[in-house]
Amino acid sequence: MTHFLRLPKRAALLTLALLAGTIASSFAQLGIGRPAGRQIVDGIIAKIDNQIVLRSDLEAIYAQEVARAEGKPLPPNLKCRILQSLALNKLLLAKAETDSVVVEDAQVKNELDRRMNYFAQQIGSEKKLEEYYNKPIKQLKEELRPQVREQLTQQKMQDQIAGKVTVTPREVRQYFSRIPKDSLPYYSTEVEVGQIIKYAKVNSSAKQAAQTQLNDLRARILAGESFEELAKQYSQDPGSGAQGGYLGFFGRKELVPEYEAAALRLEPGQLSPVVESQFGFHLIQLIERKGDKYSTRHILLKPATGATDANESAKELVKLRRRILSDSTTFAKAAKDNSDDKQTGANGGLLQNREDGSTYLPLDKLDPAIFFTIDTMKVGNVTPPMPYRTDDGKDAVRIIWLKSNTPPHQANFKDDYQKLAAAALAEKKNKALDEWFSQNRGSVYIEVDPQYADCKLLDVTN
């Protein structure tokens, strides 16, 4: 049976290469999951203008799909489907080049940082990741940088093509009415979970200690010591510290306001006073300006937090929880107004399903810490404050709310409107992408290895 709530064919192909590339191909490039002693014979199997598809690109994603199938039959012509999706993505890159679509360095850096944090969490720590590959984090990032830039460029092109597409409730109902009853998917238990996070407060003595240390370092630099060597020794920015504090070039509004304002007041070679931002305290040196861009190096110190500091944040959450339980405010409003996690806070505290963007989370895919927390909770309950460590390593506390618990069921319009709307939107965006491909596939040069000639690259009817 075909599940209509799955992404349409073209969107599924694009997602396969983009999202699989985000984790699977990144792991594959770093060597994760590749059988020891087995080497893939590489070579170019397709060219789309000046963009190329390597055999290893196809084989890496194919291997991930085989592993994901866990012995179940694979879709027919899977390698052709993967190659089609890769070729379509290369068309996006080719057109991005001619249309001057550019992804900023800051966005690439943020995505690299996010992925390295993810990899480090999977393997245990940054140190273990470096030991496993016998490479420093800096080198791993540099090896991933071209791939990440390509993926972000592809996504930006897709957003330009179909990013403004929306669906109305009427269109969602029409979409649902087209689904044959025997094709309606069956959903396992799903929950909606909210959280309000408060970071551990930094006490004034810890702040003062960081400021004093940076002022001492500033004096040493002015007395002739090397900024770069002191940055390598003292900076707590893992990305730039090993590079002597060098951040590279950024445009206006690409760095936090406090940092940018201080940097742009400097002359090349000049040192800033100590600057505070959401990341901690900085000592900044302007290197040079090029038009609207500027390059700097910095030393970052993060004031230490302790149990006492976390207790202060917990006291705030105790008061907030009391207001929620007494109905003097809603969890959603409390999260929006008070949570230090701006992403979930803007969503009323609710966690999002990364696969479809909804707030419904399959029980078997929950983070274990949340799963065991809500396992015995009743719908509507809010936990007392609990210790928590954020993805970027910050000490925090949080309260968790179980908004809903939906038992296993077959899809229906009332309970699954969010999923239906997401699927209907994907179908509509898919049509917009198909139209774009039809209009642009003839504008590029295509060459395919004879072994894959039957795959009909860039054929939207295939």
From TrEMBL:
<keyword id="KW-0732">Signal</keyword>
<feature type="signal peptide">
    <location>
        <begin position="1"/>
        <end position="28"/>
    </location>
</feature>
<dbReference type="InterPro" id="IPR023058">
    <property type="entry name" value="PPIase_PpiC_CS"/>
</dbReference>
<dbReference type="Pfam" id="PF13624">
    <property type="entry name" value="SurA_N_3"/>
</dbReference>
<protein>
    <submittedName>
        <fullName>Peptidylprolyl isomerase</fullName>
    </submittedName>
</protein>
<dbReference type="GO" id="GO:0003755">
    <property type="term" value="F:peptidyl-prolyl cis-trans isomerase activity"/>
</dbReference>
<dbReference type="InterPro" id="IPR000297">
    <property type="entry name" value="PPIase_PpiC"/>
</dbReference>
<keyword id="KW-0413">Isomerase</keyword>
<feature type="domain" description="PpiC">
    <location>
        <begin position="188"/>
        <end position="288"/>
    </location>
</feature>
<dbReference type="InterPro" id="IPR046357">
    <property type="entry name" value="PPIase_dom_sf"/>
</dbReference>
<dbReference type="Pfam" id="PF00639">
    <property type="entry name" value="Rotamase"/>
</dbReference>
<keyword id="KW-0697">Rotamase</keyword>
<feature type="region of interest" description="Disordered">
    <location>
        <begin position="335"/>
        <end position="354"/>
    </location>
</feature>
<dbReference type="InterPro" id="IPR050280">
    <property type="entry name" value="OMP_Chaperone_SurA"/>
</dbReference>
<feature type="domain" description="PpiC">
    <location>
        <begin position="291"/>
        <end position="401"/>
    </location>
</feature>
<dbReference type="InterPro" id="IPR027304">
    <property type="entry name" value="Trigger_fact/SurA_dom_sf"/>
</dbReference>
